[in-house]
Amino acid sequence: MNRLLEKSAILTICLLGFAASSEPVLPVAALLLAAAASACAQLFSGKAAAPVIIAGCALLCGVMPVMLCALPLLLYDALCERKWWLVLPAGFAAARLPELSQMQLLITGAGMLTAVILYVRVNRLETAVGKLTALRDEITEKNMQLTAQNRRLAAAQDNEIHLATLKERNRIAREIHDNVGHMLTRSILQTGALQIVNHDDALREPLDALKQTLDGAMTSIRESVHNLHDDSVDLKKTLEELLRTEQFSAELHYDAGTQIPGAVKLCVAGVAKEGVSNAVRHSDGDRLTVIFREHPAFYQLLVEDNGTHAEIRRGGIGLRNMEDRAAAVGGHISFSASEQGFRIFMTIPKEQ
User: Fold this and answer.
1) Strand 249-255's sheet: what is its strand order?
2) pLDDT above 80 (res 335)
3) Neighbouring-strand partners of residue 292
C-alpha cells in the first residue's frame, strides 16, 4: 500500500512534465505506456520480467524523448527492484534533450530526486515494520513459552501440594491410631474390668452406657482412620513406583478420575503389586504393561508381560490372594498364559 501511494505522488509529478509538452498526442501515449509498464513491473516484482520491462521503457527514451518525463517513475521501480542501473539505457536520449523544454527537464529532475527520497523513506519504513513484526513474533513466542512454563510450574506445585496433603492425612491417621485409638482401647478394657468387679446395682447401668459410648467412639475413630488412610493413597503414583524396575521396559496407561473409593484403590494397588512381583520372579520377558481405566459402570485393571508361560499354578498363594482381593470389592479377576505372555485382567463394578 505504501508503494502505491508513493508511486501515485511520483506519477503526479510525471504528469506535470507531460502536460508541459507542446505536442497533443505523443505525451498522452507515453504517459499511458509508462503507467502500464510501471504497473506491470510492480505486478511482476521480484521476477525476471520486471527488470526487462523497466529497462525496455528506459530504452524507449532514446526513440521517444518525451518518455524522459516518466523517468522518475521508472527510477522508483528500479530502486524497488534493487537495480537502479536499469534506467541507464535512458542515457541514449541525451542527444535529443533539446527537444524537451527546460520546464520538463526541471520537473523530471525534481521527480527523480523525489523518487529517491520516497524510496529511501519507504525502505526505512518497511525495514522498521519488519523489525517490529519480528520483535512482536518473538515476544509472542516467548509469552507462549512463559505461559506454558507457568502451567507446568503450577501443575508441579499442585502435585506437590497434593502429595503433601496426602502425607499429612497419613500422618494424622497414624497419630489417631497410635494415640487416641490406644487410649480408647485402654478405656474400654478398664470399663470392662470395672463391670466385672462391680457389685453395686446402681453403677451397673452407668457402666454399661459408658461401655457403649466408648465402643461407639472406637468404631467412629476406626472409620475415620480408615477413611483418612484411604484418601492418602495416590493410586497413580503408587502404580508408577511399582513399575520402577530395571528388569522390564515398563509402561503405565492411567485413565481414571480422582474420586476412587479407598477400597478400590487398595485392591488395585495390591493386585498390581502382586502381578509385578510375580513377573519379576517368574517372567523371562522384557516388557511389562499396566493399564488402569475408569469406565462409567466399572473399573478395569490389566497387568501383562511378554514372557513365555506354559501353565498357571492355581494353587499359588499369589493368585489366590489376588482373587480374594477382587472378591472383597465385588470384582472379578482372571489369569491367562500363552506364548505371547502372562495376563491379569480384573474388573470392579462401581457402587450404585
Assistant:
1) 249-255, 287-294, 298-305, 341-349, 332-338
2) yes
3) 254, 301
- 341-349 and 332-338 as β-strands: parallel, antiparallel, unpaired? antiparallel
Provide CB contacts within 8 A for 330, sequence distance 6+.
348, 349
Over the stretch 220-277, which tens digit does the pLDDT of each residue have?
Answer: 766 665 655 555 567 888 788 888 877 788 888 888 877 788 788 888 888 888 888 8
- Residues 310, 231: Cα–Cα separation, whole Å: 40
pLDDT at residue 115 greater than cutoff 50: yes
Provide CB contacts within 8 A for 130, sequence distance 6+. Answer: none
Parallel, antiparallel, or unpaired: how do β-strands 249-255 and 287-294 relate? Answer: parallel
Average pLDDT over residues 150-169: 66
d(CA 227, CA 219): 12
Report, in angstroms and rounded to the nearest whole number, the Rg of the chain calculated over CA atoms: 46
169-174 CB contacts, 8 Å cutoff, 24+ apart: 169/228, 169/229, 169/231, 169/232, 170/228, 170/229, 170/232, 172/228, 173/225, 173/228, 173/229, 173/232
| 247 secondary structure, DSSP code | S
Contact 298, 347 (CB under 8 A): yes
| Dihedral sign for Cα atoms in the order 28, 29, 31, 32 | positive
Alpha helices in the chain, H assignment, sequence order = 2-19, 26-43, 49-60, 71-80, 102-175, 182-197, 201-231, 235-242, 262-282, 317-328
- The answer to whether residue 15 scores a pLDDT higher than 70 is yes
Q: How high is the pLDDT of residue 310?
A: 46
Q: What distance in Å separates the CA atoms of residue 73 and residue 91, rounded to the nearest whole number?
A: 16
